[in-house]
UniProtKB/TrEMBL annotation:
PANTHER family: THIAMIN PYROPHOSPHOKINASE, THIAMIN PYROPHOSPHOKINASE 1. Residues 121-273 form the Nudix hydrolase domain. It comes from Malassezia pachydermatis. CDD domains: NUDIX_Tnr3_like. One of its GO terms (molecular function) is kinase activity. InterPro entries: DUF4743 (IPR031804), NUDIX_hydrolase-like_dom_sf (IPR015797), NUDIX_hydrolase_dom (IPR000086). Pfam families: DUF4743, NUDIX. Keywords: Kinase, Transferase. It comes from the Eukaryota. This is Thiamin pyrophosphokinase-related protein.
Length: 305
C-alpha cells in the first residue's frame, strides 16, 4: 500500500462514521446509546438469548439489558455470558480468538448525566458491539529529536510486523491512564518506572472511529504522552515479546514508512499529533493541516471518561 498524502495516512485510521450507517442496530444502556451492533451480532445475540436465556433484549432496532439486569455487576455478568457463549459457539473467531481475559470499562451516563462505568466486558468482545474503548500511547524521543519506534512481533494477533508507537496499551477497568502508561513502559520497553514518572508528561487525547478490515466498528479514545528522554544513551528494548525490535527514527524516516503503509493505523494518528504539537507539521508546510488536526479529535458522541 502506498499513500499519497498525510491526509490519506490519517484516513487509514479515521475511516468510519457509524452514526450514519443505517444498517447498524443501537446498543442502549439506561436509554443512552453506547454501541453500534451489526446484523450478524444482532442475530447471534438473539440465538444466545433463546438458548441460555441471557438477560438481554432485542426489540425494534435496539439491543439493551433486560429490566431485571440493572446493576453494574449484573450487567457485567450478562454481557460476558453472551461473549463467552459466542466464543464457545465459534460464531466470531475474529475478534474472539484474541481473547485476553482483560475487562474493559464500558461507559454510560449516571446521575446528573455524568459518565460512569456501567459494566465491564472482555476486551476482545468490545468490537462486536461497537463499544468505545480506551488506551494509552507514548512517544519516547531523544534530545536530538529522534523517536523510538518498535516493530510488532510476528506472532501478534493483530498487525504483526507493523511499526507501532514507542509504548502503547489498553486501559483495563479500574486502572488510571498514567498508571497504565507506567506499567506498559516497564512491560513493553524495559523502561524504569522512576525515569518514566520523572520525564513523561500528559500531552493530548485523540478520538476516532476505526472500521476494521472485517467490518467491526471501533470507537476509540487514546490518552497521549510524551517521554522526553534525558539522554541519547537510554535504550528501549523488547521486554515482554510484544515487539521484536526497537529502532531510532528521524522524522523523515517515519514519514517515509507512514506513506508506505508500514505503521499500525492508529499509531499514525498519534505520530501526527506529536508532529503538530512539536511544530514539525504546520499550516505552512502541510496543505491539509486543518483537516488532519480535526480528524485527530473526531467527536465520538457516546459517553466517555
Amino acid at each position: 500500500m502506498v499513500l499519497n498524502s498525510l491526509l490519506d495516512v490519517a484516513y487509514t485510521c479515521q475511516n468510519d462514521d457509524p452514526w450514519t450507517d443505517a444498517s447498524l442496530y443501537s446498543f442502549l444502556c439506561d436509554g443512552v446509546q453506547i454501541g453500534f451492533v451489526p446484523q450478524s451480532v444482532w442475530d447471534a445475540v438473539q440465538d444466545c438469548i433463546k438458548t441460555v436465556q441471557a438477560p438481554l433484549q432485542c426489540e425494534g432496532r435496539t439491543m439493551t439489558f433486560a429490566p431485571t439486569c440493572s446493576t453494574k455487576d449484573a450487567r457485567t455478568e450478562a454481557i460476558n455470558q453472551v461473549a463467552q457463549w459466542l466464543r464457545e459457539q465459534r460464531r466470531f473467531p475474529d475478534p474472539l480468538d484474541g481473547w485476553r481475559n482483560e475487562q474493559y470499562g464500558i461507559y454510560s451516563l449516571g446521575p446528573a448525566q455524568r459518565p460512569i462505568i456501567a459494566f465491564t466486558l472482555e476486551r476482545s468482545a468490545c468490537a462486536l458491539f461497537g463499544f468505545a474503548t480506551y488506551g494509552v500511547h507514548l512517544t519516547a524521543y531523544t534530545p536530538d529529536h529522534r523517536i523510538w519506534v518498535p516493530k510488532r512481533a510476528a506472532n501478534k494477533a493483530t498487525w504483526p510486523g507493523y511499526y507501532d508507537n514507542s509504548v502503547a496499551g489498553g486501559i483495563t477497568a479500574g486502572e488510571m491512564p498514567f498508571e497504565t502508561m507506567v506499567r506498559e513502559c516497564e512491560e513493553e520497553a524495559g523502561l524504569d518506572a522512576a525515569l518514566v514518572r520523572a520525564h513523561t508528561h500528559t500531552a493530548s487525547v485523540i478520538t476516532y472511529f476505526y472500521k476494521t478490515p472485517l467490518g467491526w466498528r471501533q470507537p476509540e479514545m487514546q490518552y497521549i504522552y510524551d517521554l522526553a528522554l534525558p539522554s541519547n544513551d537510554i535504550q528501549l528494548a523488547p521486554s515482554d515479546g510484544e515487539a521484536e525490535s526497537f529502532e531510532l527514527m528521524d522524522k523523515d524516516t517515519i514519514l517515509q514508512r507512514m506513506f508506505a503503509g508500514e505503521f499500525k493505523p492508529n499509531c499514525t494518528l498519534v505520530l501526527l499529533d506529536f508532529f503538530i504539537r512539536h511544530g514539525w507539521l504546520t499550516p505552512e508546510n502541510e496543505k491539509d493541516y486543518s483537516a488532519i488536526a480535526a480528524l485527530l479529535h473526531t467527536p465520538l458522541r457516546v459517553p466517555t471518561p
